Amino acid sequence: MKKSESLCPLPWIHLSVHFDESLRVCCNGSKGREVVDDQGKVIYFPDVTEYKDVINNQFYRQVRSTMLKGKLPGFCDYCKKIDESGGSSPRAHFLHQYQDQMDRLIDDTQEDGTLNDPSEGPLFLDFSLSNHCNLRCRMCSPEFSAGLKTVFNQLELEYPVDAVDRAIKGWHFSEDQKVMFKSWFSGMDKILLQGGEPLLTKEAKDFLKLAVECGEAHHINLKITTNLTHLDQDWLKLIPKFKAVALHVSLEGTKDVNQYIRQGSEQELIYLNIKKLRKVQPLMPLYFDIYAVFQIYNVHNIVPFIRECILEFNTVPFFGFLRFPHYLSPNILPQNLKKKVRYEIENFLQEIDRTQIDPMGIKNLDTLKAHLDLMDHEPEDRLLQWEKFKKYTRGLDQHYKTNLHEIFPELGKEVYED
User: How far is 143 from 61, CA to CA, in rounded Å?
Assistant: First the structure.
């Protein structure tokens, strides 16, 4: 493996905080991504007093050392599979984004992964501030939408109860943390806010206001993953204070499919909010991406959805391959449906005029093609996951008074008529 294929800048420059305040290497990693102290205990953000102590602890040193030796840690499997399939992974994206700094970062790193001169704070901060959300998405869980706790309890579905309860209690920034943030902001390049729904989270707004009040927002790039069902005047006044703003708008398909998957979503309202923001785009560096999850419920709708996004917003959505929960991953689909999905998407990818697509859209199309290869990797416990999927779908359909037949007839037949 070439060194560039084993490197990711995030373990050098980044801090990611999960919905329950636990630290993780990044939001894309799989099992083992949790940042632990030298005794092997998960580190929680309220316990962080010095960024330098975290980024140079035994866990991070081991991650960097592994990468410098030409290997990727096990929790980087998602990015590795995407890259090997010809797509553009989050790792590749960040490596490209921070390529000018990588040589300096590596030169300043000892063989055991120790940073000789760690910065005062992270260059890139990723916060999932609470699990408060107004939607009840089918591929989601109480971890990211507190309102799903009741649904999961009724359907007797498993979820990390302690972590969810911790998140529901909410974040409360201490005065010491605010002082720490102010010192971090001066050297910060990027903030990513996730959720829950950040635009409904008071802590997210207060955090960004702090960056504005201390005079540092003007050099910070702001990214927000949002369902964009809510857009108030406070946010419209706040986001122009930052250097640039990118909104990752979450949608899962054309209207009926999106509303089936994202319970509570109003697609007309989301499109209206996008168009409102587009009117102020000439006044500030404001960017939009459509983010979707490549999952069992929407794979049949991918092509119509891309066509709609190109028509409405002149953009190709980015699709992230759903890995958890396993029973909603498209790789458990019956072979006849997999073949049909692959045929439709591959034909579309061959026919589309790539000269009319921007470079990021081209990357998104290539990543989509890579997802077809991931879909073909059938898990050994497929039958077990398939039974879980049927039970889960039937339970949610009964709870929400919906029917899978109406949005994906072929899959509905497999679920209800076997």
Answer: 29
